Amino acid sequence: MKANVKKSSNRRLKPALRERLILEEAGRFFAEHGLDGGTSALARRLGISQPLLYRYFPTKEALIERVHAATFRERQDDSLFAVLDDAALPPFERIVAFYRRYIAMHDYQAIRLFLFSSLAGTSLNRAFFEEFQRVILTRIVYALREAFGGAAGEPVTDLEFELAWSLHASIYYIALHRHVHGVPGPDPADLVEFKVRLFFEGARTLMTPAAR
What we know:
Order of helices and strands: HHHHHHHHHH
CATH class of the largest domain: Mainly Alpha
Number of helices: 10
Helix content: over 70%
Radius of gyration: 20 Å
Number of domains: 2
Strand content: under 5%
CATH architecture of the largest domain: Orthogonal Bundle
Number of strands: 0
Structural class: mainly alpha
């Protein structure tokens, strides 16, 4: 995937606009080339000098951190999480609605950046996983307990987190298959419902009171 970036080194841009353009192109660049992609190549692609790039982002690590935040944290809003708290929806519909929104956010840039960050062993993904488990997977476990008669007030166990991670992994694979393996497959929104339904059938045998 080649970016279409106009050479703008001779144009006077407002600092906020220049920073945004650098950030957007850096996201595409690292998604294509991985975190090993050099800032000199990025600067050439932007049509600016490397010193100018470092004027906005003093280190490559600072740039990657901002790209990571813009790609993951800043794309999220409260409505993404609120759907898991919507008691008007049955647990199954709640989880499907959440993951349909979630998978729509994970485009080519997001899925590849996340994979490259994991392979590079950065602390960014580790922090993201910890927050995701606390904020999202805990809510999913509560929804599963509601669906299958679990104890609502008890702390979430490690096995329950593993169960929720297995659901998340199956949804994550939809984006991985499309944007890394290059196999489009069926519509992601339809696949989400299929994956969650398949998961529920298995979870029913593990989480009902009799099974426990």
